[in-house]
Amino acid sequence: MVKLIEKVGLADELLEFLQEQVSAGCDWVVYDSDQPLCTVFDFNCFTDAAEAFAFEKRYQQIFNWHLAVPVGDMISSLKILINNPKQDLNTRTMNLNNLEDRKDEMLRLGASEQTISKMEEQMKLGSAPFKLHEPLAAIKGQVDVEFHFQKSRQSDFYYLNRFTVSHNLGKPLEQDQHYLIISPNASGKGNSVKTFNLVTDAVEALKKRDGDAELAIGKNAASKVTVATMEAGKVNYVAKSFRSTFYGKPASQTIWPERGKGFTVQQTAQMIQGHSVFRNDLVNFTSGEVYAAWVKFDMDKGAGANGNFNLQQYHVPQYGFDLSKVLDSYKIKELAVPEKREKLEVELRNGMTPLVSVEKDGQAVKLLLEAVPRYNKLNFYTPDGKMEKREQFMTKEALASVLDTGQDKSKSKEKVQEAGMGIGG
Q1: The dihedral of CA 10, 13, 19, 25: what is its sign?
Q2: How far apart are CA 139 and CA 267, in angstroms?
Q3: Residue 364 belongs to what domain range?
Q4: d(Cα 373, Cα 326) in Å, to the nearest integer?
Q5: Is residue 148 part of a domain?
């Protein structure tokens, strides 16, 4: 947390100095976070992130804890002090009821504790607006979740405006890694390094450049792995393993939650991967009646004009998909234990693909399980996403029924019920 000594105009003086450093090509600043800032000489500015972190490490002491931060973050903190001269960032108060409400909302939506902590930090700083990123594991690639927070213009009240999920099929980042845009400074000395958490933001930033630049992956510039380069504003190289990510567009969906109600983050993340979710609190806008249905995004038709996918709904019990009954058609070991069966059904209703124990060729194996209401079936996958033939895991009675009809009944009649409405606007 930034602290300043009591000196009239100090925040303006520091701000002007940092803005000059930005013009000179500096993107990082290191300062002693244990001591209040007294002068511009308390700042050590760098064009390269690796140099800044090296300086931070070199001068690190228990009671003189140095921090390397983006210059833009320090500028934002100083602007807060300038706009609130009677407050400092260490004692700045906030609407605690508002904070509690936002925490409760994020918990109901299923955000991680780490993301909620970052939200609290931004609210304490008075940041507005701000975004938070949370990655979620996927069978293929990764789902990136981005929360968008706004602040009222009339008060200190914060609210969650929306969150967006994007399914990126590329290799997920490792812990503490970032996407890096590295380009020469205008002064010709050193490089500028900008970090991104979302691959879409990084690719877009590179494409907007008009000079020389490279897109890399790493914890910092010193550990980078280059995946794309640009010369004179034109992309001249994209690593083979990164091409589908660079040129493709991830499937995405934006949700406007109402005080934590509606689809959770995890449910939406599963739906953007093509899975179905069960909801028993849907409302018919015409009659006002509450009903239950399995819901999935209609990804076959593509996104609408608002950038979102429409919904496909399979009403319960009208459509005929009974999860418990369908599960009984398969030899899944977890079904024999009531507690494990209950947990399994909850996960499937949330669109999850839990690991289950089955037998294949006389050997016990673990496979991912998916509920497919549309075809009244379950799908089985290996952990790396390869589909297995479901018939080999059926009970004798269920398999005999399929063979008697000559085909799976759900294939002969698809009762698709499409609500035709968008979600989140």
Answers
A1: negative
A2: 14
A3: 323-402
A4: 10
A5: no
DSSP category for residue 248:
S
Inside any domain, residue 115: no
Shortest CA distance to 179 belongs to which of 123, 120, 238, 220?
A: 220
What is the arithmetic mean of pLDDT over 340-358? 96
Counting the structural domains of the chain, the total is: 4
Rounded-to-5 percentages of helix, strand, coil across the chain: 30, 30, 35
pLDDT in tens, 78-135: 887 777 655 544 444 557 888 999 999 999 999 999 999 999 999 988 888 899 999 9
* Percent share of the chain, pLDDT over 90: 50
Of the residues 247, 275, 297, the one at which a domain ends: 247
- Letter string b/e over residues 47-69, b meaning 16 or more CB atoms within 10 A of that residue's CB: bbbbbbbbbbeeeeeeeeebebb
Nearest to 227 by CA among 248, 206, 209, 198: 206
Q: Which of 83, 118, 144 is the last residue of a domain?
A: 83
CA angle, corner 117, sides to 115 and 119, nearest 5? 70
Please name the residues in contact with 346: beta carbons below 8 A apart, sequence gap of 6 or more.
Answer: none
pLDDT band for 7, please (50, 70, 90 cuts): confident
Q: What angle do CA 305, 291, 295 make, to 5 degrees?
A: 45
CB 179 within 8 A of CB 133: no
Closest to 24 measured CA to CA, from 193, 185, 182: 185
Residue 329 lies in a domain: yes
pLDDT (0 to 100) of residue 402:
79
pLDDT score of 226: 96
- From the list 263, 280, 248, the residue with the least C-alpha distance to 164 is 263
Q: Between vectors from CA 210 to CA 208 and to CA 214, what angle results, nearest 5°?
A: 75
Rounded Cα distance between 136 and 142, Å, is 6
Angle at 200 between CA 383 and CA 236, to 5 degrees: 105
Report CA torsion sign: 107, 113, 114, 116: positive
Calpha distance 323→159 (Å, rounded): 37
The H-assigned helical ranges of 9-70 are 10-23, 49-58
With CA atoms as reference, report the closest residue to 143 among 163, 109, 172, 120: 172
Q: Please report whether residue 235 resides in a domain.
A: yes
Size of the chain, expressed as the number of residues it contains: 425
